[in-house]
Amino acid sequence: MWLFIIAAGVIVLLLIGITAVSRHAFRQVTLWERSSLDSAYTTVEGFGLLTRAEFEGIPKEDVSIMSKDGHTLRGYYIERYPEGNKVIILVHGYTANHIISAQFISLFADEGFNVLLIDQRGHGRSEGTYASYGFHERDDLDAWVEFVRRRAGKDALIGLHGQSMGGGTVLMYAGISQYVKFIIADCPYSDMEELMKYQLKQLNHVPLFPFMGLLDRSLKKTAKFSMRQVKPIDEVKDKDIPLLLIHGNKDTFVPTQMSVDIHNQKRIGLSELLIIDDAIHANAYPTNKERYRDKVHQFLQQVFEKESTT
């Protein structure tokens, strides 16, 4: 009798522990604490790329759109070239906000682009709750592309730059893109399921069974998507859209190999890959600003040449 009671108690404790770990994993993946604007400014200023005073001094328009599922999404439109038709949409990563993306304003403005800084759903000044790693966000991005086409004209040369989850989002968007002319993905993941396996096992030392299944069940029930629906590598591999992938070789959060795999799997169209030595996750630009800018410039020249002949 006592052995039965003890065994039952152990099972109950195990179930409680599994439930607690599963809930923590779900929160970490979809609801982790978002960065404040102040902390984002601290990060970007620490990179030596942009100060709060410099950003606040940039002429910009506060803009907003409505997502398909009723969330107000907000951003800033920076129109340095009122007569120009080139627009870059900058897409930040998980827990970040538009200030992190602002480090890239001068990079693209120097190439003749007007800039749209956006806050992804559930981040910064945008409404929403759960991050879905590009599954729902690609529809939000599609709405922003339509905003740009209304603002800059239907012949606008629109490009996307995304970092980390933003990189995954812009690659997911490739699967539905009609009007975007190029994509730059900085430290993206190739497959969310594989990324979660890596992060659970290698970074958090959590066994994959039963937690992967429980995590995906929670994602389906609460956030309305499955990890298996987020495979950026599949969305871009058969698309002709020019692609530049950038990754740091010291990235242990999203393995560098994921960008290599995307590059190798892209079957048609231009695909370029830049690996930045000594760069950790989302730090390629501040680690080697010159190489990053040179590669983006060279890539954009190929895009412009392609557009001039079509």
Automatic annotation (TrEMBL):
Species of provenance: Paenibacillus profundus
Gene3D superfamilies according to UniProt: alpha/beta hydrolase
Alphabetized GO MF terms: hydrolase activity
KW Hydrolase (keyword) present: yes
Keyword Hydrolase part of the UniProt annotation: yes
Protein's name in the database: Alpha/beta hydrolase
AB hydrolase-1 domain mapped to chain residues: 87-202
InterPro entries: AB_hydrolase_1, AB_hydrolase_fold, DNA-binding_regulatory
Keywords, alphabetical: Hydrolase
PANTHER family listed in its UniProt record: ALPHA/BETA-HYDROLASE, ALPHA_BETA HYDROLASE FOLD-1 DOMAIN-CONTAINING PROTEIN
